[in-house]
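Deviations from the work plan: none for this task. Representative record:
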Amino acid sequence: MPGRKLNSYYEKQRSQGRRISAALHIAFLLLTLFGLPSFLTPAPPPEPPSITVELLPVSAISNIKPSETPPVPEKPAEKKPKKEAPPVKTADNTPPPPPKPSPVAPPKPEEKKPEPKKEEPKKEDKKKADDAAFMAALKAVQKTAQEQEKKDEKKDTKEDAPTPQAMSNHYDPSLAISADIKDSVMSQLGHCWSPPIGAKDAQNLSIMIVAEYNTDGSYVKVELAPESRARYESDSFYRAAADSAIRAVKECSPLKNMPPDKYQGWRLMELNFDPRFMLH
Amino acid sequence: MTVTRLLALFIAAFFACATPAHAVLHIDITKGNIEPMPIALPDLAGSEIGSRIMEVVSADLERSGLFKPVDKQAFIEQISAQTVTPRFGDWRQINAQALITGTAIENGNKIKIAFRLWDVYGEEQVAGKEYNTFSTNWRRIAHIMADEIYKRLTGEGGYFDSRIVYVSESGPEMHRIKRLAIMDQDGENHKFLTDGRFLVLTPRFSPNSQEILYLSYAGRQPRVFLRDLQTGREESLGSFEGMSFAPRFSHDGNSIVMSIANGGTTQIFKMDLHSRHLTQITHGSGTIDTSPSFSPDGSQIVFNSDRGGSQQIYTMNADGSNIQRISFGDGSYGTPVWSPRGDLIAFTKPSTRGNFSIGVMRPDGSGERLISESYMEEGPSWSPNGRVLVFHRQASPRSPTKLYTIDVTGYNQRELVTPMDASDPAWSPLLPL
């Protein structure tokens, strides 16, 4: 009977509809539970423009003020014997100054002092004070950098690799995290890396290393990036440069002051050792 | 059902995409540390000659400025003939990045030397060699070992198994005695080649044999002489109309280029050493073209000329065509010499302050750098690997003339000690094995 056939048809349609509806509801529920949080995670802040501040980080005032920054006077003294006198044995005093976290400690008590006195309305004042301090710090750094440039000759500047002391590894959560990690890693690895600046065509000896790290900053694996391996076998200059880069990563392990809460962001690294900017 | 399956696939795909990706942090390391590589050089186990050999190896590597031998007092592990694999942790602890182990065995008047080069951080052997020779060759073996180590760790050939010929000077200024002298690149095995009766100048080594060219005033007229250092045989390359000077071998050692001054002009000539056929290369009118030097591939010649009004550096094809000026800085330039690597040309440059400098530039004239300066210095000559320059210097008007070496980067300047005053050095190729 037509009526029964029609009812059967509609029943099938309703059944199918219910299944589709159920599936969509489930999908929506799952989306809500697992997908939306990732959508809601704020995008990482854009990286600030790179400012070549070689001496000190931008985070703390007192870290900048010490123009008694030890590496500055030491480096010119190291260079002079090499150029003028036969006793190049002055190369004995090569080890870089050990990292001194102590300069980082003193500013903290100063910052803490005002806090107990003025807590409630001082967010704006504190922000203004921070901004003022930031600008003062930048000026101080620029001035120091200009003075440094006047004193040093051109070819000396390539030895002014930022030391772990000069580029403090102090971790400030209020700053862009990625920039801090990069600067810290660059500083540490740069200290362990002896680039082949006198090699033929040294400007073409850029080495790409892929490294995986543990949470404590020690390396798990260090190897040449795939695109570099063919040249490693055929080019003796390249092989020597690659070996020096790999050695630098191993020697500078474990990396210091790596933020464990950002571990997934720095676990895998692609390190491009490029001596171009150290050449004349 | 089809729709349901599609939805299920969609959900599964969504979950796969929703998994947070592991970003790779890219970092550019653009600054490094210009420090020599710490290398541990324990004595070769076995014969006492092993320690003498390692002393020479250590001195060679340290003098290059690229290596810093670790003090033996700091060694934790004592390497012996039974050492198969070093305890790398012990060597890392004293900051050694490379390590040599090996043995030296004497058998009558012969020695057998075996060594292995280890990458301490990589914990693997990266080179190893064995040599058998007469005991009297122990010093050369040391230089050859140093060359092997240098080559493996820097990527470029060494230069330790080579010699330097130069003009030894003595006596008062008005009666200067100049003799040809030769020594190992570290100053050892020094000996005189001429007796000082005649003035000698500008010795130059063949790039592929133990022959030298030099200018001698024997017979009162300056002439170019060719001497075989192994046989001692010497011959004049002929009398030329005019004065000949600044002789230098071609890249293959089969011909020489030199300047001949005649009729108020000085031009560059090339002579085939087999046929003695002379060919004029430059044809300037009233110009002074001198100090020719071949490129290592023989396709070009760099030389000095005043054709532009002042003493500048020019390059040209080996046949004299396509003359191009490549020096454009303030002041004048002289004594250009092409690096064996082909990538640089060294030169002497008087400064406006009255001093002299040694500099380098690329063959197209770019990248000019002055790497040394003093009251008077000139006459650079390249090491066989094109990494080091030797030149002579007079630090002040009354000071003696001495030889110095310097790395092409401008670092690691050192005096090369000679028995007397010294000038006009020329670096040999690596000695034949």
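The CA atoms of residues 119 and 126 of chain A lie 10 Å apart.
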